[in-house]
Design brief:
heterodimer, A: 365 residues, alpha/beta, Rossmann fold, Phosphatase 2c, domain 1, 2 domains, five-stranded parallel β-sheet, five-stranded antiparallel β-sheet, elongated, B: 97 residues, Transcription Regulator spoIIAA, five-stranded mixed β-sheet, two-stranded parallel sheet
Amino acid sequence: MHTILIVEDDPVTRLFLEELLRQEGYRVLLAANGEEALQRFAERSCDLVLMDILMPILDGYQTCRELKKRMMAGFFVPVIFLTSVQNDTELALCLDCGGDDFLNKPPSPILLRARIQAWLQRAELANRLAIDRLDVENVILKMRLDDQFDGRKLRVLMTPLGKTTGDIVLSAYRPDGVQYLMAGDFAGHGLAAAICGPLVSDTFYRLTRQKLPLWEVITRLNGLIFQKLPLNMFLAASFVELDRVRGKMRIWNAAFPPVLQLRSGRVQERIGPSVALLGIRPELLCDLSSVPILDWQEGDRIYLYSDGSTETRSEAGEFFSEERMELFLTKVAFAGGALEELLSILEAFGGEQGRVDDITLVEMA
Amino acid sequence: MIEIAEKEGRVTIRLPEEFSYQLYREFREVYLHRKQVSIYDIDFALVNRIDSSALGMLLLMYSHCKEQGTRIRLLRCNPRITKILTCATIDSLFEIV
């Protein structure tokens, strides 16, 4: 049974609506003004609101705005205005304040019935989607808890636009002390991208435990993504294999922004992409085992970042760019400072509209 | 908005300034049910922003057209876009003109 909240200060109209809706088999909640409506709404859940416009204390527009603000994120409770106003500007206000529809007062029972049914159906569909979304989100969050992430020697900044992200950071130590690090970005963002995370992380950690060389892990990940996911879901990522004891490291960049090695405030190495996006072809068509071995010294800093930051745009349309990113990272590596400073820099650069993607930054010491 | 021009089996798809996931449906509908096309020319002249979903959309089109034996050419990419396509190694799947 659906519950409908009637917000109406005139007792006669209220009674008329109440009777009509009860006969239709709805459960009815009553409010004589906006303030009462907010109270009812907080106490009991309802599926639809019928709203008068001219009321003492809070008018219908303000009440509607407040109600919509208090609805659970992603869920939908339609608000239908009942109005005796004929003026277009006022009617447009009904939609402007978040309302979904309006009907003339007094409404014809046939029309009222039809509109209510149509809106309830639409709401049910939206709310079922919202519930599915929450479920999938919870599955992903739970799978991520199971993560075997080893954060020693790392600082990580991750800011998903939603609760779930397509960005991914994995780190593990081989039994002999060699560290494997991966930072990646799945195509798209939100749920669809986020479901890929657990698939990749499971394989990454299992193969690391088996002491496979990192290039072999990358090859397997490519095959896995190609095989298990649709073609438009792929991964851009960078990988670092670091042997601190021997002072050696290897870096693979698969369509990711350049990986930086900084030493005494200078860029020592800048490793651009040389490997294909992972998951768009069954084979990678290049010899991963032959990437150069770089030397590594105590005090070096390695930075991996996704393109969410460099793609941030200023109001003038200028990109934040790799150059600005390098400037920031050089400062952080040399003078210290929190990775989080990047967020305020990006905000100052791009303003409200600038950020369009998740932002991920990893520092390896 | 995507603009389409069709002439004797050659379909030109002119992309707007931003080629991103918002065009997903529109872009897909261009090729999905179109018959008797020998070549698609995707015109990037206006594009200055492309996201990973767009790369995915190109890949889906690529696999569809491969089955049909239809050619795809990417025209007039600016250096920034070319760099992104090369970086993703998507350039090897298409003719970039």
